[in-house]
Amino acid sequence: MTEIKDTESELQLFRLRLSAAVVLVIFCFSILLFRFIWLQALQNNEYEALAESNRISIVPAVPSRGLIFDRNGKVLASNFSAYTLEIFPSKIKNEINIIIEELSKILKISEEDKKRFFRLQKESKLLSSLPIRTRLTDEEVAKFIVNRYKFPGVDIKARLFRQYPQGEIGSHMIGYIGRINKKEARRIDLSSEAANYRGTDYIGKEGIEKSYEKELHGETGYDEIEISAGGRAVRLLSKTPPSPGKNLTLTVDIELQKIIEQAFGERRGALVAIEPSSGEILAYVSKPTFNLNLFAEGINTKNWNELNTSIDRPLLNRPLIGSYPPGSTFKPFMALAALELDKRTKDFSIEDPGYFWFGDKKFRDDKEDGHGEVDMYKSIVLSCNTYYYMLGNDINIDLIHDFMKPFGFGQLTGIDLENEIRGILPSTKWKKNYYKRPERKKWYPGETISVAIGQGYNSFTPLQLAHAISNLSNNGIVMKPHLVKSIENSNGERTIYSVEDKSYTIPLKKENVDFIKSAMIDVNKKGTASNAFKNAPYVSGGKTGTAQAASLSEEIEYEAEKIAERLRDHSLYIGFAPAENPKIALAVIVENSGYGAAAAAPIARIAMDYHLIGKKPKIKEKKIFNDVQNSIQLNGNTISSPIISPLPNETISEQDEDF
Q1: 448-467 per-position pLDDT tens digit
Q2: To bridge 540 with a disulfide, which of 93, 299, 345, 577 should be the other Cys (CB 3.0-4.6 Å)?
Q3: What is the pTM of this model?
Q4: Is residue 310 among the annotated active site residues?
Q5: What is d(CA 113, CA 131) in angstroms, rounded to the nearest whole number?
Q6: Which residue in the list 129, 278, 323, 328 is annotated as catalytic?
């Protein structure tokens, strides 16, 4: 039987399906049209920029670092260009070790080169490339160019390297640069300088290089380069050249610096020389020194360990962070305090039997049978301890603190170097805050007696001592000490950076200052420093000093030749010249070298002779005692740090020279 089809029903179903298909097609095309309009019209700028960025690469152009000169134009830090072999870790498909081994067949790559590379890879920020070899010769460059096709991700770069022509001279002052580590990279990325450090691998780490990093770095430039889909450079579209870093001229005379460092020989210590009228630092010596060029490309492990573990601590910036008791160099300031505070007159005298009793404690003078009758003038010229024991007993410690503070003792000088320490100018408030145990917080009168001769809790940096004597020789006018004299940009425009105005004036009576100066002049003429300044063609003033470096057992009598070298007293000297119009004021400390007249004063004479009359000395370097006696423990006697002085108790018999 034949089935009758419902044509009308099928036609209606077909039309329904066709309508649904049409609606679906229109809907899909609507989505495509909307997406097309969205991408081409509304999002055009964004995608055009993305496309352009794929076509154009922005390559930072690192600026050349500014140069550093001394006050006479001698170069202290410069740059030179050299080729380096660089590996781009992000472009290496194989193991980097394999690539390095293959490179070793073409170029000489030492184990030290490999260690440095992997250390930099671990420590540095995410750099585009890292050097596996530096300072390639032209022949080595040619060898690699021929084989470049074998090493995708390895290339030759021309880089600027830092160079320090003076080597070890002035190392702590000049400082050095080093690769940017992760901590420094994070700090830069969070700062406003992030864009300016793109492509930069090195940054100032110490000294002037660090303090003036912003000025020395310069402004990074940029090259716009069109690249192909394969990432190859096609053409240079635009170029924004970098601006070189600014050049610095320091206040230091590097020849004076060199002569002083030679005068120290192998002895440890520090010297800071200042021009009192301006605050310009003429010499900034810390001994021993180290060769700055060791750090120029990243110091190797061997050299770093030698410097970092040396008992002589060559990396320590002694003028800035070395803290020492001032010894007898404190006495002229104590005498001036006595006059200004009306605690003594110039003519007041005492009878010195060679000791001073305070309760049941005996404080000894350096001269066993005493100096006889001693007035203030004689107390400075002959450095009489007993006079100052008695003076300390008559002055409140807080009065001493308040008088000494304006001179810069125990204060930050504000020098243009980072990490300066404050030192210790003791007071009742300081001791209360310093100690935790209640019984240690109280100030005892016997402690003031120790402070009065420059011992006890007193602990100052060589920079502070130089600043203080500069202020005294300048009649109380305080000039901020500084190392940078001027800054010059790439256009040759010079910015004077000298401190042109005084910081403040210490209110002192002229007759009192003149009296102290006259006594210090006679220290050099007929007192404790007379041998060092014999036949000097100029008039100078000064004060020698000796300061304890360690606390010995009470049963041991101090005899330098019987004591380990690092247990011996420090030798100090402060001075100024010429006396009538000082052009130089300085402080010297020679660690563990005994009397100030024997070690520190002769070095001061050499410095003054060269600065004032251009006289160069004939220096014979002498190796001092560096034998087994330098151990940290010796017969039960604990050696304090040769830098940070011990905090003595009031039972110590003070020993201060001065002949």
Answers
A1: 999 999 999 999 999 999 99
A2: 577
A3: 0.82
A4: no
A5: 9
A6: 328
